From TrEMBL:
This is DeoR/GlpR family DNA-binding transcription regulator. GO terms for molecular function: DNA binding. Residues 11-66 form the HTH deoR-type domain. Signal peptide: none annotated. It holds the Pfam family DeoRC. InterPro entries: Carb_Metab_HTH_regulators, DeoR-like_C, DeoR_HTH, NagB/RpiA_transferase-like, Tscrpt_reg_HTH_DeoR_CS, WH-like_DNA-bd_sf, WH_DNA-bd_sf.
Length: 260
């Protein structure tokens, strides 16, 4: 596209094109749209704000995704906060020692954590997440145990009685769980009670508990299913989380806060 492409296009046509691009790609960043349409990032942000007010899109940190009243798919989540999730995952990987048995929850951040464990040896990873299994499928030095059960296609994780039965026969040194939302009082928020039940059991089976949640999850309560937080645990989030979002966790007894 020429450099004058976006400026020649009317605002209405530009917003229609933005809506189509977001719908087709699942999630996009402001800079990507600005480059594609040859307009400034501030113009794109104004367009996204208007489209969000009209209910046509949902804003994310640094971009937008299709408007939805339900649970976003793993594919949609994968495109969000990539840099922040990777920083969180790299920090988490450094907490894992040779010989550890670790539980990894299903999700995008734990998938990135698994990626950074590929070169580890003497490690056992127990997981219900397809993204984790995919990352470790050819990591021969890592022993991988999958929790069977019913697959939730939208989140690409196994849940249900069979997963819970397998988990009941295992203990772990550390567990790393994700969240759709995280509230200092209510705990971990997810779309399904099957998810929160399994997270609660994963937490109970480990000596050390880490919740991996970028700043968009802090204080969020998008659904009505909750897993309570344990007496002691560590929150790992990104260093762009605003002080107001961090404050409830900083004052929570038994919680350690790490920003990366």
């Amino acid at each position: 596209m020429g450099t004058d492409f976006g400026h020649r296009m009317t605002a209405g046509k530009r917003r229609a094109l933005i809506e189509r691009l977001v719908t087709e790609q699942g999630a996009v960043q402001v800079e990507e749209l600005a480059d594609a349409l040859s307009v400034t990032s501030s113009t794109i942000r104004r367009d996204l704000s208007l489209l969000t007010e009209q209910g046509k899109l949902a804003r994310t940190y640094g971009g937008a995704m299709p408007a939805t009243t339900g649970e976003p798919s793993l594919g949609q989540r994968t495109a969000l906060a990539n840099a922040e999730k990777d920083r969180i995952a790299r920090w988490a990987a450094k907490q894992i020692a040779p010989g550890d048995t670790v539980l990894l929850d299903a999700g995008t951040t734990t998938g990135r954590l698994a990626h950074h464990l590929r070169e580890h040896s003497g490690l056992t990873v127990v997981t219900n997440g397809i993204s984790v299994l995919t990352e470790l499928v050819d990591a021969d030095a890592v022993q991988v145990i999958g929790l069977g059960g019913e697959m939730r296609h939208i989140s690409q994780g196994f849940v249900g009685p069979l997963a819970e039965l397998t988990l009941s026969r295992i203990s772990a040194d550390k567990v790393f769980v994700g969240a759709d939302g995280l509230d200092a009082r209510l705990g971990i928020c997810e779309a399904s009670l099957l998810q929160t039940r399994l997270k609660e059991q994963m937490i109970a089976r480990a000596r050390e508990v880490y919740v991996l949640a970028d700043r968009s999850k802090l204080g969020a309560a998008p659904f009505n299913a909750w897993a309570p937080l344990p007496a002691t645990w560590t929150l790992v989030t990104d260093d762009e989380a605003p002080p107001a979002a961090l404050a409830p966790f900083q004052s929570l007894a038994g919680a350690e806060l790490v920003t990366v």
